[in-house]
Amino acid sequence: MPKLTEKAKAAYNVAADAEVNRMMKAMADANIPMSAVASDADVNRMMKAMGCRPECLDRLYRKREGSDGQDCEVRVTRMPAEFFRIVAHASTNSIGWPVPPFALMTGSGMHDLAHAIAKAVSEGMLGLGRIALPQKED
């Protein structure tokens, strides 16, 4: 088999990217998940071909012992833009009450925001709470 020139490889990659993007857009428009039409291995190959990497830990912020904070991870997925997930672990507050885990997601490019949120959660300066909605009277 003859070797492709760099120009031919680039042209092929552009065409392949355009086709993959067209198919993924059509699936998204039709609300069809990738798992419905491709195996996990196929999805992983497509993601890798597009320069995507699976979610991985970017940084772990540790709670200070005895504080109201929660251990908090910042996880990043590159698709090729970066998307962040902030994962706060279950914990107990300074008076021993349980604090449930939660997760928040950001849009692309929100590195500084994701890390600021995780740091605030680990220091007990930010968290989630439950609210009681007023009941409708009949």
Topology record:
Layout: H1 6-29, H2 40-49, E1 53-61, E2 72-78, E3 82-88, E4 91-92, E5 98-99, E6 102-105, H3 111-122
Antiparallel strand pairs: 1-2, 2-3, 3-6, 4-5
Element string (H = helix, E = strand): HHEEEEEEH
From the helix content, strand content and strand pairing, which structural class follows? alpha+beta
Mean pLDDT across all amino acids = 80
**Strand elements, count:** 6
Main-sheet strand order equals: 1-2-3-6
Shape annotation: elongated
- Uncertain runs with pLDDT below 50, 5 residues or more? none
Question: What is the terminal separation in angstroms?
Answer: 78 Å
Rg, Å, rounded: 22 Å
Structural domain tally = 2
Largest sheet, in brief, is: 4 strands, antiparallel
Beta percentage is 15-25%
